[in-house]
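Lab notebook, bench 4. We co-purified these components, and the gel suggests they stay together. Before we commit to crystallization screens, I want a quick structural picture of the whole thing.
Request: model the full complex, all chains together.
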Amino acid sequence: MADTPGAGGSTYASADFSSWTCPAPLRDHERIIMGHGGGGALSAELVEHLFVPAFGNDVLSELGDSARLPASGERLAFSTDSFVVRPLFFPGGSIGDLAVNGTVNDLAMSGARPLFLSCGFILEEGVELAVVAKVAQAFGAAAHRAGVTVVTGDTKVVEAGHGDGVFINTAGIGRIPDGVDIHPGRARPGDVILVSGAIGVHGVAIMSVREGLEFGVEIESDTAPLGDLVAQLLAACPDVHVLRDPTRGGLATTLNEIAGASGVGVALREDALPVPDTVANACALLGLDPLYVANEGKLAAFVPPDHADACLAALRAHPLGKEAVAIGHCVPDHPGMVVSATGLGGTRVVDMPLGEQLPRIC
Amino acid sequence: MKYLDEFSDPVLARRLFDEIRALTTQPWSLMEVCGGQTHSIIRHGIDQLLPDEIQLIHGPGCPVCVTPLETIDKALEIASRPEVVFCSFGDMLRVPGSGRDLFKVKSEGGDVRVVYSPLDALRIAQDNPDRQVVFFGIGFETTAPPNAMTVYQAKKLGIGNFSLLVSHVRVPPAIDAIMNSPDCRVQAFLAAGHVCTVMGTAEYPELAERHKVPIVVTGFEPLDILEGIRRAVRQLEAGRHVVENAYPRAVQPEGSPAARAMLADVFEVTDRAWRGIGMIPRSGWRLSPRYRDYDAEHRFSVTDIDTQESTVCRSGEVLQGLIKPHECAAFGKQCTPRNPLGATMVSSEGACAAYYLYRRLQVPTTQEASSVG
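Here is the predicted assembly.
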């Protein structure tokens, strides 16, 4: 944006929305609102209509969880992510684990074997060294577990009040095996959709500590590195079409993104969704839908129908996928849309959330 | 899962669908009063599976939807003040006032916080004695008692920097207003179970008798709703019109005496405007004179509010059960959850949002409607 005075007392001029490739949605908001970081439609629009046109190139436009790069005879995957979770420590993990697993998993979702990681710490003035050390140790331990090497890093400090203790950015590089071609646009009618285990666990774990909510039993985050699980899946079936880890925005957002990118319809079976009782109870209390709650150690796989049983068996043979199930399939009907059969026998559209899910009043 | 699974059992549901089908000999129109029931009906596809003769009409029972535009504009005005911490339940943040919402106020620097209980707001007031903490107290008889309790606590603890922006409404006067409308199509009511958990059922027999309309107190899980429908249809087919309690696991005839006593101490009944419907006599609560110091409208003297309601939005008719959401020309075109013209589209409990979110395949859609999915 130009650095000149603009309307509304802002020190910045209004962006020229009319020149954007698809200006309509972002006109709704002249400023960033929390929903732009919620992983739903607003987040997607920020990326697709603001960042991608500004940076534009074919690799970025694919909008996978990581970029697939050609490099002297082999293919590399490259991905970056930033972590601003609050609180820094929560049942089952910390921002350090998330910062490693998040980028490792984004690499794995293109079928890559994660290799190297960078680590950028943005620290807030006043945060205790002991806290930073604890985060760093968790980061190192998670990297070791994921089998990646932390090869470069950076540290910045911002004034008190300008951060939230610790922010972390990570970037990672992995190698994509020959014969593997996984990206969000490859789903085809007939593909079977698998998830590797229970959904909604991480989001409910974070909510329980962030908001001081007690659900009668402690719920631990499912944060975990998925590189090994993916390698095992690809060993059973190299022709996996799409992989995605359903983080912010939950499984509903992931399925909508894939349906949109591939132009297929997604048909879900509500009674097949692996929602643990603890998550279902917490969501019922808060008026949330588990399909929209964040996960950190789960993947969704779109696989050819004749390989579905082998893929399911491969996932179940790994400790991180032992509760894997088939939850639906791709159809030629309602392209770009996710439709679920309800437990009672009706149907409903499963939409992409706009921003963050908001608990109901009563 | 105990308490939830057993009330959505597909086998028992099928049995209830069969019983309702066997009972039904002619068309009937039933109104579910509560937005939570609407959400459940559409979310589980119950309306798709009922016999064609049973028409479900979605009632005004969404607290977000019926909060008047003027009150939301007052909330936006108060939340914009630098000395204020404005606390609200999450789903009020997206409700449009005249041109903006609380999310926008927050992005412009307003201290707007989502809380899960009004007592959280009181704690914020205790922790920030140099700030004015305001809680947005909206909703029906369900949310009013905890809000009353919070004001009671504030007074008892001498917390002077806390106040309540009150927009509480009462269900029975709304039922009366709907039945008095010359265009009314409602032949039976599924009363909101959680409202009756607080207030009991004493207000309903007179309404059922005067309007010759069955009222069945109904819960929120699929089997609760089907049982409510079954009992309402049974009464309609038999020409009866009494109050039945189909939610006995939560509702006692006398309600919750403690909650009612708290309401009686802190609030007094007042006339209240409902968004999209208009003024309904004696349909709301305001703080009683003893607690007037805790009234945010009084404390911040919010005046000169100039409201601008959409001219094409028909959410008032949706709230009164006069039209279905997709019968509004703006539905799915100018009006979507992304760009809601009325609160029935913005609130997750709103009938328009429920139709848009869950039922777009069955109602006429537009290019915009399908592209969002």
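Chain A touches chain B through 42 residues (CB under 8 Å). Worth comparing against the SEC data before the next meeting. The two ends of chain A are 42 Å apart (CA to CA).
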